[in-house]
Every structure is written in structure tokens, then in C-alpha cells.
Specification:
Length: about 210
């Protein structure tokens, strides 16, 4: 299975977008849409610090990295879940796993594989550290149980050269359509003009 477009947008909204390396709540160097060195290249601790001079390119790099990362998390969930699931349930499980990395060990997986869907949904709430993660867990539980997707714009947060993110004001707000356009890969065989047009089309709604 693959995540739905709505599921991808919901996950990105939960994570937020930071177009340069930053320190997360556990002081782990992170980049873009929740990417850490544990997920593979690029290693955020080795990346240039501070906001990119070209914000558009910084955002695109974040999405390119996310496309690579999410494929692995989708595979992990497919391998861990032994029962059929609905698309919205799969979206919730990948969002949970992307944040926790725990799909293979979590109680919710054992419950779901045993056919105990309601108990599995509630077990999502067993992962509440740090405390600020509660709204995300509630949203994932509601998505799994009711197919209820969060809506709204997606913030791109500024970060300084020390890796500190400022949540006072977003550097940019992306619409769902813009985010979905940025998720579309540009074929390597495309000429430079076609690649440029594809990139610009993802940003046209801001003009």
C-alpha cells in the first residue's frame, strides 16, 4: 500500500517543514520534514546551517528527501501489519511510525493484527512523549478510527544558524495543492526547461 494524497499532506502538516538543519525536541539534528541522519542521506548534522538563500530550492530539497524517506516507512508498515487495512487506517499507521519508528514493536500493531481495531486505535495514545505530541496522537487516532483528516495550510518554519526554530511566524505557508505538487518527482530524463516548468507550477498559486 501507499499513503493517500490526503494522508501525505496530513503527515507533512504534523511534521511542519524546516528548510535547513534544526535541533528537534531531543536535540537531534533534523532537516526538512522530520528527516534525521538515521533515515540516511543527507545527514542534517553535516548540512549547511541557517536558512537557505534560495527558500524555494530549500523547500524542494525537503520534499525530495521526504519522498525517499516515506517509501521506507510505507514498506515498514506493510511488513508489520498482517491484516487488511483501509487507506485512512494505513495513513494513520504510517504517520505514527514516521514519528516514533515503533510500528514493529508497538502494542497497537499486536492488537491490530489480532483483529482488535478499537483497542489498536486507542493504543496510539500510548505514545505521548514529549507531552506536546498529544494533539498529533489524537489526530492519528481519529484518522485511524474515523477517517478524519486534518486540514489547513502547511507552515514552513524559519531556523537560525544554531539550529533553533522560530515558531513565532512562518517563513511561508503552503496550500495542500502546493504540497502535493512538490511531492511529484521530476523525471531525470526531463530537459531543463521541463524541469523548471514543473518546479514553477508547484509555486504558481502564490503569485
Amino acid at each position: 500500500m501507499k499513503m493517500t494524497d490526503r494522508g501525505l499532506v496530513a503527515l507533512i502538516r504534523h511534521e511542519g517543514i524546516v528548510p535547513a538543519p534544526y535541533l528537534d525536541v531531543r536535540d537531534v539534528w533534523t532537516f526538512g520534514i522530520g528527516h534525521t541522519g538515521a533515515a540516511g542521506d543527507p545527514n542534517p548534522s553535516d548540512m549547511k546551517r541557517g536558512m537557505p538563500a534560495d527558500l524555494d530550492q530549500g523547500i524542494r530539497t525537503a520534499f525530495e528527501t521526504f519522498r525517499t524517506d516515506i517509501a521506507r516507512y510505507e514498506r515498514d508498515v506493510c511488513n508489520a501489519i498482517a491484516v487488511p487495512v483501509e487507506p485512512h487506517e494505513f495513513d494513520a499507521l504510517v504517520s505514527f511510525h514516521y514519528n516514533t519508528g515503533a510500528i514493529h514493536s508497538a502494542r497497537l500493531t499486536r492488537l491490530l493484527n489480532a483483529g482488535l481495531r478499537d483497542a489498536a486505535a486507542e493504543a496510539i495514545m500510548g505514545w505521548l512523549k514529549p507531552g506536546a505530541i498529544r494533539p498529533r496522537r489524537e489526530a492519528e487516532r481519529d484518522l485511524f478510527r474515523h477517517g478524519r483528516y486534518p486540514v489547513g495550510t502547511i507552515p514552513v518554519w524559519p531556523v537560525d544558524a544554531e539550529g533553533r526554530v522560530s515558531f513565532a511566524r512562518a517563513a511561508r505557508l503552503l496550500s495542500e495543492d502546493e504540497a502535493l505538487a512538490l511531492l511529484q518527482p521530476i523525471p531525470a530524463s526531463a530537459g531543463w526547461l521541463a524541469r523548471l516548468c514543473t518546479f514553477l507550477s508547484s509555486l504558481i498559486k502564490r503569485s
